[in-house]
Amino acid sequence: MDLLINLFDGFGYLAGWEPIVAMTVGVVLGILVGAMPGLSPSMGVALLVPFTYKMAPQIALILLVSIYIASNYGGSITAVTINTPGTPSAVVTAFDGYPLTLQGKAGIGLGVSLVSSTVGGIIGTIILIFFSVPLASLAVKLHPAEYFALAIFGLTTVASLGGKNWPKAFIAALLGLLINTIGLDPISGVKRFTFGTYRLFDGFALIPALIGLFALSEVFMRLEEFKLEKEMIGADIKKTIWPSIRDYWKLKFTILKTSILGTLIGIFPGAGATIATFIAYDFTKRGSKDPDSFGKGNPEGVAAAEASNSSSVGGALVPLLALGIPGSATTAVLVGALMIHDLNPGPLLFTERPDIVYSLFAACLVANGIMLVLGLMGSRLWIKVTDIPKKVLFPSILAISIIGSFAVNYSFFDVAVCIAFGVAGWLLKKYDYPVAPIVLGMVLGNLAETNFRRAVIMGGYPVFFLRPASVILLLVSALSLVYPFYQSYRNKKKANTSVK
Amino acid sequence: METFKYFGEGTGLYVMASILTLLFVVIAIIISRSSKKEFFWRLIIPVFLIEASLGFLMVSLGLPVKGDEVGPSVVPNLWITGIILLSVLIIARTLLGFEDKDPRWGRIGIVGAFLAFTIFYLYMIIYIGYYAATFLYLSISIYSLSYRNLKVIAGLTFGWILVSYFGFYRLLYVPLPKGMLIERIFG
């Protein structure tokens, strides 16, 4: 009952003009960020964080979450029309979306992707509300040992999903954790790795590091590749046919099933939207009466990909809000945004600032509705974003990154940090080291360290193996460390068998 | 303990950094002249990570510990150990042929030029102020990427300056530097 009352309060907060403007602007920016190949949701949110410094925390979060929600849909627009997914998670949308465009049915692809995204986003948010509230009340009772195990679990899951490059993903996570130890020790106040520089007493500011790792590294990468030409639209979308209500109704079970699947996958740290779309697409294809039509322009493929993609946002917000553990790159950026507004994500947020949590829940639902309206109104307009020349876009991103980093502490040191992280991120990405685990390590480092030390002070080193939840989480973490070994051994064995 | 503390800052830090840099250069030369030179970057990155971790380890061993409490060095050392072990694993995987050859460098000159120009831009901000420096930075960098629509360049540059002025300076109260030269001339 409390939940419903709080949720009504959340909706009440949205009645003002500021939240409505924030959501609308967020949705428009999100669609543009998603539709623009080269801009990812995490990059878009990171670049927009500096604009929210002086906003009320609710408004800032509503704006950023709206960008996150809409950017996942935005990626599908270019995937359907020009076979260039605007975001990594829209790759699967292009499998059936682009063949539809080639058949002169771009409207079907765009319409199905919009409606599936909206329904998926709403289902994901509903699951978020009903999952995170009890999870947060459970999390308040966690022992520091369990919290440490949870942080390690989050990091190892993220890193173990690095596929073939899993050692590099683990190193990236450890690097983030190590970077986080720079500055004054959170328990004893001793200076650590400051190398005599007072500027490092507080460690590296998170926002400049995030902007460098997500935005600048991508710009340097694109400049090095020098692919700055504009993408061409595969067919004339003005003369296309659009789906009817009956067409959408036929897809109801696909959208419902893949939305639930997408949310559940999104909850697991590191799994994220891309994995959710691949699994949901495969799941739908296997269950279909006509699996051969997939990849040739089946609207069910578009619906599965987009519903799971959007619903994974709700899933990814569950560990962030309930446990304070970001499960994806974009949610890690949101942690940074929460921190600059003096808010600590985690279970205490539900008791200390329920207004923020519930207005965010309500905003997630309303933003999906706004996305549907704006998506329907501007489907021909959004595609125009690909007309923005990259030769103009990339220097502009550099300029935004610099002012954004400067605005954190009004310091050129932060700008230098941003550029240094950008160069490091570019080099690391070039040699297959993912940058998202670095950010997750930086975000989770403090949580992991303080809880580790508190737990040891309270019960000595064996404490981690005396509490069942901690043992289970550490075991699962260990398994996710061992799993890539087993997987590569199995693949090798399979390859040998097929050669024989 | 005191020996390790010596490496934490001041002369000791320079000594340690010099030794590690020298070692890094030697290893880089060895790799570049070996049969594994096509894996140069795949090998040199974990080597760098090991050396950097060793540097951090030396500093962390000098951190104060009282009795048998969990001191400030315990957790960093845990992460350092992980980085060193995994870096060794990556080096071994590369040497055993489990890694691909280094990808070819693209237009590295352009990235270098952009980086250098960005650093120059930061100096320009200090001397001629944020607005003038940004005008020059944006217009020159867009033009140098062979974009020739001057109207768009001018519109975007002025547009961004207006956004920075109203959005950051007036609304967010970010004290964007006015520039030493400008302040000297106009007070």
What's the helix and strand layout?
The complex is a heterodimer of chains A (500) and B (187).
Chain A: H1 2-13, H2 17-35, H3 41-48, H4 57-82, H5 91-102, H6 106-139, H7 144-160, H8 166-180, E1 183-184, E2 191-192, H9 206-225, H10 245-250, H11 252-267, H12 272-287, H13 299-323, H14 329-340, H15 347-352, H16 354-382, H17 390-409, H18 412-430, H19 436-459, H20 468-499
Antiparallel strand pairs in A: 1-2
Chain B: H1 2-6, H2 11-33, H3 40-61, H4 74-95, H5 108-128, H6 130-144, H7 150-171, H8 180-186
Helix pairs in contact in B: 2-3, 3-4, 5-6, 6-7
Strand count of chain A? 2
How would a textbook summarize the main sheet of chain B? none
| Cα-to-Cα separation, first versus last residue of chain A | 64 Å
- State the assembly state of the protein chains: heterodimer
The largest contact between protein chains, plus residue counts on each side, is: A-B, 58 and 70 residues
| Overall residue-averaged pLDDT value of chain B | 89
The backbone outline of chain A, from C-alpha atoms, is globular
In what range is the share of β-strand residues of chain A?
under 5%
Rg over C-alpha atoms of chain B, rounded to the nearest angstrom: 24 Å
User: Mean pLDDT of chain A, rounded to whole units?
Assistant: 86
Q: Low-confidence parts of chain B, pLDDT < 50 over ≥5 residues?
A: none
User: Structural class given helices, strands, pairing of chain B?
Assistant: mainly alpha
Q: What's the total helix number of chain A?
A: 20
Helix content of chain A: over 70%
Shape of chain B: extended
Order of helices and strands of chain A: HHHHHHHHEEHHHHHHHHHHHH
Query: How would you write the strand order of the largest sheet of chain A?
Result: 1-2
Structural class of chain A: mainly alpha
Question: What is the string of SSEs of chain B from the N terminus onward?
Answer: HHHHHHHH
Rg of chain A, Å, rounded: 22 Å
Approximate strand percentage of chain B: under 5%
